[in-house]
Amino acid sequence: MRYRTLGDVRVGAIGLGAMPLSIEGRPDARRALATVHAALDAGVTLIDTADSYHPPDGAPGEGELLVARALRAYGGSTDDVLVATKGGRGRTADGGWTVDGRPEHLRRAAEASRRRLGVEAIGLYQLHKPDPAVPYAESLGAVRELLDAGTVRLAGISNVDAERIRLAREILGDRLVSVQNRYSPADRTSEAELRLCAELGLAFLPWSPLGGISRSSLDGASAHAEDPRFGAFHRVARARGVSPQRVALAWLLTRSPTVLPIPGASRPETVRDSAAAAELVLHEEESAALSVR
Fold it and tell me: pTM for the whole thing?
């Protein structure tokens, strides 16, 4: 596993997005734990979850509890594992998603996440999504209070534009270490934000990084059929004798030295394949072909 930095923390270049382990279609507990343990065995040291990662009929924080359980049950050391969680979203009974960026909600949510994870301070706490009903500066102010209180150690933001990144940097200073936006072979709308993160030295965590190669957990069941729009990823995969998913993650690592993909997984074999992308060094001509749209 190659490594990259997230603030002052060194983490594996490929992380684990734990969302598929705790929402609709999730595996049973045994397979979920085996998936997290396979990630750790493969050198993954960044695990991303959220208090809203639970089925519609579940309780907030089920995903966090699963991650905490998996770390406790792991046979090796987990001292270098950074658990990132998010607050500011929720679920509806029909499977929808809500947003709540009120400072009082974020303070309560972070404290509840801290307890579920069983830590003195959350390693990385991310504001999940801007709330259109709350000034973004007020939500960020709550995150700053959490940092000052020691409830969280590092802060991140998600689903944001460049203007909000600059505002967050102004309010949180160098304790802002990451931005998590959707970015993949299929969705490159956050190019400007990716460049800004590189300029500011912020880690860029693309969520649903396999879009175009596989479907997001937010979009339903995964589909691995070849999409002709992304044929270059499949051609490189066939030439290298690896999966197109591995090629996609390796390509993401070439987009910026601050990129830290967090692909989801619900099976040990999937997470092992994703982690192996950190060791797949693409040739210059391959990267160029994959970058063409």
Answer: 0.94
